[in-house]
Amino acid sequence: MTTSPLSAPVPPMVSRACNLLLGSPAKAAERLATGSRTAVYRVALTAGSNVIVKLYSHTARRNALTEAAAIRAVSAAVPVPRVLGYGTTSSGGATALVTSDLGPSTLGSAVCSGSVPRLQALRDLGTLLGRTHEAPVSTSAPRRPVIEAVASLSRRCPSDVLDRLAPALAIITDTPDEASAVWCHGDPHLDNVVLSGTRQTRHLVDFTDAAPGRREADVAHALVMTDAHSKWDQHALLGAYPHVVNDTHLAAWSAVLTVSCWTHASPGSNRTAWSNRLAELSRRTPHLFRPHSGHPHAPRARRRAR
Predict the structure, then answer these.
(1) Per-residue model confidence (pLDDT) at position 8
(2) Domains along the chain?
(3) In this predicted model, what pLDDT tens digit does every residue of 249-289 receive, in sequence order?
(4) I need a surface site. Which of 86, 114, 221, 249 has the fewest CB within 10 A?
(5) 30 forms bridges with which residues in the sheet?
(6) What one-character-per-residue DSSP string does 18-84 give?
(7) What is the pLDDT of residue 96?
(8) pLDDT for residue 53 is more than 60
(9) Distances in Å between the alpha carbon of 153 and those of 68, 168, 267, 288?
(10) Which residues is 45 bridged to in the sheet?
(11) CA–CA separation, 61 vs 109, rounded Å?
């Protein structure tokens, strides 16, 4: 995440989004994050309030419209930011989403500062996921097929590593996409939970990748992205998650997502950390990987404890 001081001039596309979607000019902006197809800003309006503006490029398949739909779909089940406006902001198809500003405090930062114990944070995340997965799924809501996730991984993952992952891939592709679909957040981790208000209510944010899908994929994502591999961490998160999960599918999704994170990790300490997680994962769940080929970068990863 990158940050810059709240300052003028406001980026033109941010100013355009505020004028088009809110009818209110922006006077200052702070960049919170930048991705390959998105940029997020905290914006001070001339009216005196702050909002969050998320810009999507025209190439983004999931955009402001799909994110706004996901937030609205789960809003009755779990605390989320209020959608203030969304729509197309350029003739080329760029979109923007404007939501309420819940403040800068996240569950991740609270754990780092010591104000919230890690196990409590994992319980909070498990509870939020459980509530999200209870939101009604409309038959018209577009799913994210499993094959899409597999295809995305195959485009970047070395072929020998992907081949070793074949047993796990076979498990997650063996169930119809329509089976037990729930609203999945798509990127559940501690920094996507914002603490807001006098009661520090936990709000889920960043529904960029939200779509109906399999609960095991979402829960596995939470386990992987919080590095919840010890039995105590897993007991905290899974113990707070109120729904039954398929352990075989959960383990397979954990393997696939860990390999995906390893594939996308930047060289250096980040890649080393994911390599170590893969090595441990393959030791714990060898049945999810083909025998090691001797390739120095082939993954070796770990078993979930209940």
Answers:
(1) 59
(2) 12-100 (3.30.200.20), 107-288 (3.90.1200.10)
(3) 999 999 999 999 999 999 999 999 999 999 999 999 999 99
(4) 114
(5) 42
(6) HHHHHS--EEEEEEEEE-SSEEEEEEEETTS-EEEEEEE-TT-SS-HHHHHHHHHHHTTTS--PPEE
(7) 98
(8) yes
(9) 26, 13, 18, 16
(10) 26
(11) 30
Six-digit token string for 186: 């798509």
**Nearest Cα to Cα of residue 45 among 12, 23, 73:** 23
- Phi and psi torsions of 100, nearest 5°: -65, 150
Q: Which two tokens stand for residue 155?
A: 């485009």
DSSP state, 291?
P
For the chain, what is the mean pLDDT? 90
Q: Rounded CA gap, 209 and 197, in Å?
A: 26
Q: State the pTM of this model.
A: 0.89
Report the 3 state secondary structure along 148-175: HHHHHHHHHCCHHHHHHCHHHHHHHCCC
CA angle at 124 for the pair 121 and 125, rounded to the nearest 5°: 90
Pairing outcome for strands 193-196 and 201-204 = antiparallel
CA dist., res. 3 & res. 6, Å (int): 9
Interval 132-191: pLDDT, tens: 999 999 877 877 788 888 888 999 999 999 999 999 999 999 876 666 799 999 999 999
pLDDT: which is higher, 61 or 11: 11
* Residue 62, pLDDT above cutoff 60: yes
Cis peptide, bond prior to residue 9, ω within 30 of zero? yes
Question: d(Cα 273, Cα 71) in Å, to the nearest integer?
Answer: 33
